Amino acid sequence: MTVRVLVLHGPNLNLLGVREPNIYGSMTLAEIDASLVAQGAEIGAEVSALQSNHEGVLIDALHSARLDGTDAVVFNAAGYTHTSVAIRDAVVACGVPVVEVHLSNPAAREDFRQTSLLSPVVHGIVSGLGPDSYRLGLEAAVALVRRDRAETE
After folding, report:
1. Which of 56, 94, 125, 146 could covalently link to 100 via disulfide, CB atoms 3.0 to 4.6 Å apart?
2. What is the DSSP letter of 2?
């Protein structure tokens, strides 16, 4: 059975490839999304992606995931990771496994980036591996859903 995965990208990730490539790499968001769709096809996952610079849009997407058949979310909340209680609450409320991903390693960066409000409420975290963080996050999300399905059968 196909696993439906929503990939959510937070603020400023639309600038990937041009914004601080020394930290975030040279791949564009479109390239990352295309690679995730292709990877999903290989592993039996239907991948859709959404990027927004607006907190409420990300929250609405998490709320929708609860009802629209989404099986898991791969989420790079970017700067909201460290600041948004509202997004944290939406992650808890969405009712599907969420894997937090980051291109860079927040623990090795500025002090204010070292606290994630999401980490305590997500199913797993992949960070510091550039675009591979997304790839591994997708693999983890699919594995979580398949494990949960096997346990309920």
Report:
1. 125
2. P
| Tokens standing for residue 59 | 């929250």
Domains and CATH numbers, the chain: 3-152 (3.40.50.9100)
Catalytic residue among 9, 80, 102, 134: 102
Q: At what angle do helices 132-152 and 29-43 cross, to 10 degrees?
A: 30
User: pLDDT tens digits for 95-139?
Assistant: 999 999 999 877 756 676 667 899 999 999 999 999 999 999 999
Specify whether 54 is catalytic: no
| Catalytic residue chosen out of the listed positions 9, 24, 80, 134 | 24
**CB of 6 closer than 8 Å to CB of 70:** yes
Q: How far apart (Å, rounded) are the C-alpha atoms in residues 151 and 85?
A: 32
Q: Whole-model pTM? A: 0.93
